[in-house]
Specification:
Layout: H1 19-40, E1 43-53, H2 65-75, H3 81-87, E2 89-98, E3 105-113, E4 121-127, E5 134-141, H4 142-148, E6 151-160, E7 163-169
Antiparallel strand pairs: 1-2, 2-5, 3-4, 3-6, 6-7
């Protein structure tokens, strides 16, 4: 069948690129590279893991043993119900890295709670010993969690000398 088909090709050979196309491609590569370098800022937040712990999650059976381990890990050492209740809340692990590991950075975690309205609360941890890969943990627990409710929106930011190096936010953060 294919031996009998003939096609007429009117396309010109691609051995030479037009100067205008070459100029456009070069500009896209240059500005794309600078755009990435400027947006990077010297740090990167690769991901933010979230774990929600309450007495309601106690009876839930998970397929993945890591989920039940996380609950046992967070409640380790809390023997009494009052101790366990004080640990109920939202836990966040911010995974990040910085290019310049010689100067300290601050990891800022801003969040809004169910009953706090538009009021933004924040916590900040200064990191002096910066490694290639870092994890900074935040917890919204205790009285703050029990009186104001769950975290509904959050943003994690890596800053140095007041300059934002990287940021990662939840879908509901505006």
């Amino acid at each position: 069948y294919f031996r009998h088909c003939t096609t007429l090709s009117i396309a010109r050979p691609m051995n030479r690129i037009s100067p205008a196309l070459f100029l456009i491609a070069t500009l896209l590569v240059i500005f794309g590279t600078f755009g990435v370098a400027l947006a990077d800022g010297g740090a990167k937040i690769s991901k933010v893991n979230y774990h929600f712990l309450t007495d309601e999650t106690k009876d839930q059976e998970a397929e993945d043993p890591m989920i039940s381990f996380e609950r046992r890990h967070l409640l380790h050492g809390a023997l009494y119900l009052a101790e366990q209740r004080a640990r109920y809340g939202s836990y966040y692990s911010v995974f990040w890295g910085a290019d310049d590991r010689n100067r300290p950075v601050a990891i800022k975690f801003e969040y809004r709670l169910e009953k706090s309205g538009a009021n933004v609360k924040s916590r900040e941890i200064e990191v002096l010993d910066i490694r290639r890969r870092n994890v900074t943990k935040f917890a919204v627990t205790g009285d703050e969690f029990h009186t104001l409710g769950k975290v509904v929106a959050w943003r994690a930011t890596v800053t140095r000398d007041g300059q934002v190096l990287a940021s990662h936010k939840s879908f509901l953060w505006d």
